[in-house]
């Protein structure tokens, strides 16, 4: 990509962003992902599964043979499209609209998923809130909302899931490259992502004796609805050009990390972080 070439057309959306309105649309593997039965018979719950990385993970899991339940906030158009894609696979599909910052909703989703699927093998904590701006502009309301969505919900869902998850279960959390290198315009978001790293490592220690593995994925810049919904238009145009590969990742490129962590290939991994980030070298 040339120095003066735009990464993406300038665009802006209201929160939380609609994937169907993005230009270009993100590649979530709708036509490209090919499964090989690595998750056959598994039962998975994915938050933020209607678009972006969550949709890519849902598609990949379904094509690997897993039954998939996904949670979304209010993006009906994206959720409907995701459900239609998943229903083409020979797996069971559930979807739930609601706010993961509500502990009662989290418990209900886990109970209904485990009830319909008769158990739960994989929890993917992925839903996130992000706001771009100066540190002094962060309000108490925004700070609380970001932490409730990005880290409190992970606690709520993991606690509920552990009542239904047995030995061999997997909890996969979504952190971010910002947890390791920071971002001056995403201080609250970056802070929650750092908390997720500590949560992942501590929960892995807590659950090792139960045979439940806890790992995380720390994506770099990825073309998802969060970007046009939170970044200024001029930042969207340059998004991803700062990494070694000089481009943003596509959600399907990140989904492979989740499939690996959910599969038998990761049976000797817990408390670890994978870094699909376009070449940024980070510690941890």
UniProtKB/TrEMBL annotation:
SUPFAM superfamilies reported for this sequence: NAD(P)-binding Rossmann-fold domains
InterPro entries per record: KR_dom, NAD(P)-bd_dom_sf, Sc_DH/Rdtase_CS, SDR_fam
Pfam family, one: adh_short_C2
Keyword Iron included in the entry's annotation: no
Key words, A-Z: Oxidoreductase
Region Disordered: start-end pairs: 1-36
UniProt GO molecular function: oxidoreductase activity, acting on CH-OH group of donors
UniProt-listed Gene3D superfamilies: NAD(P)-binding Rossmann-like Domain (3.40.50.720)
Start and end residues of each Ketoreductase domain: 42-226
PANTHER family: NADPH-DEPENDENT ALDEHYDE REDUCTASE 1, CHLOROPLASTIC, NADPH-DEPENDENT ALDEHYDE REDUCTASE-LIKE PROTEIN, CHLOROPLASTIC-RELATED
Family membership noted in the UniProt record: Belongs to the short-chain dehydrogenases/reductases (SDR) family.
Protein name: NAD(P)-dependent oxidoreductase
